[in-house]
Amino acid sequence: MKKLLLVLCIGVGSMASAQLVNGDFEGAASPLLPGIATDCPGWGPGLYTMETTSPFAGTQSAKMTTILDPATNQLLGWGSDTIPGIMSQTVAGPMPNAASMSLNFAYKYQVTPGDTALIICQVLDTMTANPNDDVVLFQAYAVFAGTANAWATSSVPLQSVGAGTANSVIVLATSSMNAAFGISNGLPGSTLWIDNVSLSGGANVIELAAEVNVFPNPTTDELNFVATEAIAAVQLYAMDGKMVMQGTENKMNISGLPNGIYHYNVTTVTGKVLKGKVSKI
Question: 209-280, which class in CATH?
């Protein structure tokens, strides 16, 4: 799986810590133009501002808003007067425990009807110096539609999507997903706030997909979980990272959930966490 295509420059930091550089957004930012930050430590150039009104924690959060601005389009050569809010960070270095990690963040949003906001983390094998051959090994993301005016937190487990050597991680957030990736224009006014972004994990959280069998998959109602160790707990998460069901048995009835893809965490009696995906149809 190839990495997502970015259209803005990215900042480079160190993998010495699981916390992303300036993940709490308390560093100063000096916009070149309204909505265009150029000096936010760790996150690099992007189309965002630092919000000081009611941040999640501390005094600032990051705010991305899709704008309609011909002058900014002419300056950046974006290709459309509708320009999404966007920010990204790339951190280089070995990441030996990627399978045990989660993307953690606080968020709120006001997304224009018909638009979608996004935060995504990808762990890469950069292969060679050519950025076009980077391969995605692990990925976590959350999408947002509608309005959520109150801050909430999410922790989305990284899911394995490829094989290779993990040596780089990229986190990107945008107020209009399709516009950011050149699929279609976003809708002016869509806004996404994020704060306290980090990558973290524990030694007891491991990727052991071969040791758990989940069936039928896809399903319309009942899920069965069979593991090589006794099961202590089962948790089911929506794609936005919110837990939608939990239990202590090896069966779960999901007939009341909306159709879609869900992540599961199966915790065994020895503390192992087995992760994967299921589809409700």
Answer: mainly beta
Specify the CATH architecture of the domain 11-201. Sandwich (2.60)
Chain segment 82-140, per-residue pLDDT in tens: 889 988 887 777 777 788 888 888 999 999 998 899 999 888 887 666 556 678 889 98
Longest dimension (CA), the chain: 62
Structure tokens at 105: 């963040």
Q: Which of 235, 257, 230, 237 is nearest to 246 (CA)?
A: 235
Structure token digits, residue 203:
């030694």
Angle at 158 between CA 154 and CA 162, to 5 degrees: 155
CA-to-CA dists, residue 275 to 30, 130, 263, 270, angstroms: 41, 32, 7, 15
3-state secondary structure of 218: coil
Query: Residue 42 and residue 89: Cα distance in Å, rounded?
Result: 7
CA distance 131 to 174: 21
Rounded to whole angstroms, the Cα distance separating 190 from 257 reads: 27
pLDDT one-digit tens code per residue, 64-89: 999 998 988 888 787 888 889 988 88
Cα(102)–Cα(205) distance, integer angstroms: 10
Does position 7 have pLDDT exceeding 60, yes or no?
A: no
Domain spans in the chain, listed from the N-terminal domain onward: 11-201, 209-280
Q: How far apart are CA 154 and CA 272, in angstroms?
A: 21
Query: Strands 86-92, 11-14: parallel, antiparallel or unpaired by DSSP?
Result: parallel
